[in-house]
Amino acid sequence: MADYFQEMGWNELAEGEQPNHLLHMARFLIDFGFQNDDPNMQWPSLPPPASEKIVKDLPEFIIETEGKNCPICLKEFKLNEKLKKLPCAHIFHPVCILTWLKKTNTCPFCRLELETDNEDYENFKKSKKRAQQRVEDLEILHDSMFS
Questions:
Q1: pLDDT in tens, 8-41
Q2: What span, in angstroms and rounded, lies between the C-alpha atoms of 147 and 145?
């Protein structure tokens, strides 16, 4: 299992090395308002767009059945029309989903979060996941003490 420094991509300070106080101040200002122990913490604005690589690599396929609609524009898919599929298996018109993913990194149907190119947001997601894991670990520990 990776330790905290490996997970964050950091190295411990060497003997006699001083921390970068400006970097710490910048991180503090970015995180201002977040309570890292709160599993309900929120990103201060809309999530950033999906990663360009993820968007470029979305699989394309041709629909062979009728009767399904695009969850974004609500228009019915035409037979033999090219569509895009997200990792959650939801399908969309290419124009609809590409426009959507330029604004946010989530599936418009199920809210599955895709990777972004925003390093701060990715670190925020890791921190939120760690906080949630700590809460779950404490619940397991509590339950094991009283069972």
A1: 666 777 788 887 778 777 777 766 555 455 555 5
A2: 6
And the tokens for 45? 């604005």
- Asked whether 11 and 17 are in contact (CB, 8 A), the reply is no
Name the one residue in this structure whose structure tokens are 């996941």.
129
Q: Which residues of the chain have pLDDT under 70?
A: 1-10, 30-44, 147
- Please report the DSSP string for 79-140 in residue order: TT-EEEE-TTS-EE-HHHHHHHHTT-SB-TTT-PBPPBS-HHHHHHHHHHHHHHHHHHHHHH
Question: How many angstroms separate the CA atoms of 105 and 54, rounded?
Answer: 10
Whether 105 and 47 have beta carbons less than 8 Å apart is answered as yes
Q: What is the pTM of this model?
A: 0.61
Give, in degrees to the nearest 5, the angle at Cα 128 between 127 and 132: 115
